[in-house]
Fold this sequence. Notes:
The structure holds 2 protein chains of 2 kinds.
Chain A lengths: L1 E2 L1 H9 L6 E8 L14 E9 L2 E5 L9 E4 L3 E5 L7 E6 L7 E4 L3 H12 L3 H24 L4 H9 L26 E2 L55 H30 L3
Antiparallel strand pairs in A: 2-3, 2-8, 3-4, 4-5, 6-7, 7-8
Helix pairs in contact in A: 3-5
Chain B lengths: L1 E2 L1 H9 L6 E8 L6 E9 L2 E5 L9 E4 L3 E5 L7 E6 L7 E4 L3 H12 L3 H22 L1
Antiparallel strand pairs in B: 2-3, 2-8, 3-4, 4-5, 6-7, 7-8
Amino acid sequence: MKLNERSVAHYATCDSPADHAGFLRKRVERHHHHAHHHGTSYQRRWFVLKGNLLFYFEERESREPVGLVVLEGCTVELCEAAEEFAFAIRFDDAGARAYVLVADGQAAMEAWVKALSRASFDYMRLVVRELEKQLEEACKSLAACRKSPRRSSSSSGRKRHLSNPALLPLQEKPTTLENGYSTWGSGGCVAGGATCTDYDHDGGQTKPPPLPPRRRSAASSAAASPAPGLSPAMLESPVSPETICFSKLHNWYGQEIAVLRREWQERQKRGHP
Amino acid sequence: MKLNERSLAFYATCDSPADNAGFLYKRGERHTAYHRRWFVLKGNMLFYFEERDSREPVGVIVLEGCNVELCDSAEGFAFAIRFGGSKSRTYVLAAESQEAMESWVKSLSRASFDYMRLVVRELEKQLQEMRRGLA
Lengths: 273, 135
């Protein structure tokens, strides 16, 4: 398969921040039909994780990566091995080779497993969906609370609303996101669509602003709302708004850690597959 | 550079939803002739196939760190994917209509982890403001 190797190598070594980096020992995979297949050997490599791209270098100062593992469609598991602190990257394609990696210690292994578990577009999409859900609930709380006129008018006049087209899940049709397409560097040019700012300076291509939260229940504004999953009628929250928002945030992060921990424990219990 | 080709090809053709797909003309690197290919965008991976029903991609363009720009070309509806680094290849692609070109430029401009991070940061900021608004 052809690859844009030079740009990828450049990206690997450019100064964009890495999500994680460190030495790992990578198990050498031998073909089954090798005549002499005694034991396993490992090669120490410098690994750099940027997004869903896991690069490995011969040395820390090497100018070009030796290899790249694209981390889509994979799972990260603790694994049995004669080695301690080993974990594996396995793919949905069962026939594809797995990457068995060994860290220097327990902390390093946990840090890598955690970082690699989040290193996919699917994970990012999950995060976005969760945040949008949180925002939706916060919106409801906002609508539910009886605030002073000054407060509520400023929040409704702010035009920052979760159904802002700029923040729809990325699987939405392109036409509902962003206004215009003039040169956009990935990561740069934030001012354009990504900061959900006033509709005033859009290119005339975004939809009209949705009704402010406290008035949504009055009309079925389905037509005006581009965001899926946002019910036109806001529900009253029975619990104090402040608690809901803050505790939900806490809950969400706490849940994530609990899930990860549970998964590690389960895998250790399962032992050798 | 070694690459986990097999799992990548699997990912390209598995039934996870694509962010965009369609025919585009791709200009060759050395020769200026355009070749029609079936392109599939998933996340920050732009795969291209010889035919729509090909079982394996001919190639993949990893889009992280790229810029997408409109460009002049006798071909029309053309746009370019550029990268940092002096030796990087620029990919010149041409769509078959204005609408297709705009759709591709939009999807490609958002096809990066960096963009996703921006979205997440923005949502978190909004959440914070909501919380302050309630306090």
